Amino acid sequence: MTIENLNVSIYADGADVDEIRESAADPLIAGFTTNPTLMRAAGVDNYRDFARQVLAVTGDRPVSFEVLADDLREMERQALEIATWGKHVQVKIPITTVRGETALPLVARLTAQGVVCNVTAMFTIDQVEEAVATLPKESSAILSLFAGRIADTGVDPLPIMREAVEIASSHPDVAILWASPRETLNIFQADEVGCEIITCTRNLRAKFPIIGKPLDTYSRETVEMFFHDAEAADYEV
């Protein structure tokens, strides 16, 4: 069981430039994504400067930067501007505005102009069907379904992701992205259902070395950890 043999592409998800530089040195990483929440948590104070630093270290791999506005007209202006930042830039467009107004007509206009859109914050099959029906033929786009957040609600995301891949198969240039994975198992699940891309945070990527570890070995190591921690704490019964 190894990640190297999978078909799904791994995109590093984050907003710390040093972490992104570190990820860029990893041949497993095929692209990069970020969002305003991650940027705020990382202390980013200037979007353009941040993007310039990121693009300086990511080379020819795709990077998704998100629009900041909630008004569709301003989202369009920002998307067209962000698309000029680099030839490998993809523009993240939320599936709806805060008020629930669909952004798909905007996505269609942008893709018709050659902007590669990453439609983000998608959760439902209805959204996938509408997106695939709206996108111009032979236009490239990514549909990011937040499988991890779907699972957080108690709903199994696997059937949704599998159906999304099937729906998107009618549009060969539309890729399904498994967003917000919670565990390394999700990478193998994403590959199994045919997702083209999965995003991984640094915390998740830190678990890659234990993929394929024999479970009996892992069991003993866990027992050893518990024992040494109890010893170090000098607990008594």
Summary of the model, kept short:
Helices cover 45% and strands 17% of the residues. By secondary structure, the protein is of the alpha/beta class. The chain has a single domain, classed as Alpha-Beta Barrel (TIM Barrel).
N-to-C series of helices and strands: EHEHHEHEHEHEHHEHEHH
Measured distance between first and last alpha carbons: 41 Å
Overall average residue pLDDT:
97
For the record, what is the CATH homologous superfamily label? Answer: Aldolase class I
**Helix/strand/pairing class, anyone?**
alpha/beta
Largest sheet: number of strands, sense, barrel closure: 8 strands, parallel, barrel
Computed CA radius of gyration, to the nearest angstrom:
20 Å
Residue fraction in strands: 15-25%
User: Total domains, how many?
Assistant: 1
Low-confidence stretches: none
Please provide the count of β strands.
8
Annotation field: number of helices: 11
CATH architecture: Alpha-Beta Barrel
Largest sheet, spatial ordering of strands: 1-2-3-4-5-6-7-8
List keywords for this structure.
TIM Barrel, globular, 45% helix, 237 residues, alpha/beta
Question: Can you walk through the features of this model?
Answer:
The protein has a single domain (3-208), classed as TIM Barrel (Alpha-Beta Barrel), CATH 3.20.20.70. Strands 1-2-3-4-5-6-7-8 form an 8-stranded parallel beta barrel, surrounded by 7 helices. It contains 11 helices and 8 strands. It has 237 residues and is an alpha/beta fold.
Question: How is this fold's topology laid out?
Answer:
Elements: E1 9-13, H1 17-24, E2 29-33, H2 36-41, H3 47-58, E3 63-66, H4 72-83, E4 89-94, H5 104-112, E5 117-122, H6 125-134, E6 141-145, H7 147-152, H8 157-168, E7 174-178, H9 185-193, E8 197-200, H10 202-205, H11 215-233
Parallel strand pairs: 1-2, 1-8, 2-3, 3-4, 4-5, 5-6, 6-7, 7-8
Helix pairs in contact: 1-3, 6-8
